[in-house]
Amino acid sequence: MSKKKQDFSPNEFVVYPAHGVGKVVNIETQEVAGIELELFVVAFEKDKMTLRVPTHKAIEVGMRPLSSPDLVGQAFKTLKGKARVKRAMWSRRAQEYEQKINSGDLIAIAEVVRDLHRHGDQREQSYSERQLYEAALERLTREIAVVQGKDEPSSMKEIDDVLISRTVAA
């Protein structure tokens, strides 16, 4: 899957693995250590952060276009599935969840949300479980909202409805 650097253009939403959904606001040239570099300027509105990514490194660092509506559908299917909780030690599982969240892969993020979701009658989440769950949920919600052209609260409700329907059916 070789992509050219011109694949991203200003005003296009992209996903940067470690930060989630951002918007390419500009493509600029900067001189760094005597070398001319072409950079994507990516704004992350919610985090009030701007990232400059060298255009020739964008694909290598995992920057990608938004997921397709089909992939969003697969993410919802993943959410409907049965939670898979491994018996490994929490530190090991937490590390795996963290890697999935930072992979930028929508399905992997949906798996984390599914596996860490707790419903009323289930035991309380630990602080670190809740932190990972909320990080994954925010990434998932943000990308689904942008792909579907909705606001985040309505995408959050849609995700929540799927997770709750799953626990009612179980």
Describe the structure.
With 170 residues, the protein is an alpha+beta fold. It is built from 5 helices and 5 strands; from the N terminus they run E-E-E-E-E-H-H-H-H-H. It has helices spanning 69-80, 90-103, 106-116, 127-148, 152-169, and strands at 13-16, 20-32, 35-44, 49-54, 64-65. The protein has a 5-stranded antiparallel sheet with strand order 4-3-2-1-5. Helix 1 (69-80) packs parallel to helix 3 (106-116), helix 2 (90-103) packs parallel to helix 4 (127-148) and helix 4 (127-148) crosses helix 5. The chain is elongated and about 60 Å long. The protein starts with 12 loop residues before the first strand and ends with a helix.
Total helical elements: 5
Question: Main β-sheet: number of strands, strand sense, barrel status?
Answer: 5 strands, antiparallel
Radius of gyration: 18 Å
- State the order of secondary-structure elements, H for helix, E for strand: EEEEEHHHHH
Secondary-structure content class: alpha+beta
Oligomeric organization of the protein chains: single chain
Distance between the amino and carboxyl termini: 39 Å
Number of separate strands: 5
Strand arrangement within the widest β-sheet reads 4-3-2-1-5
Question: So what's the overall shape?
Answer: elongated
Helix content: 40-55%
- Give average pLDDT, whole number: 89
Question: Hey, roughly how much beta strand do the residues contain?
Answer: 15-25%
Poorly predicted spans: 1-5
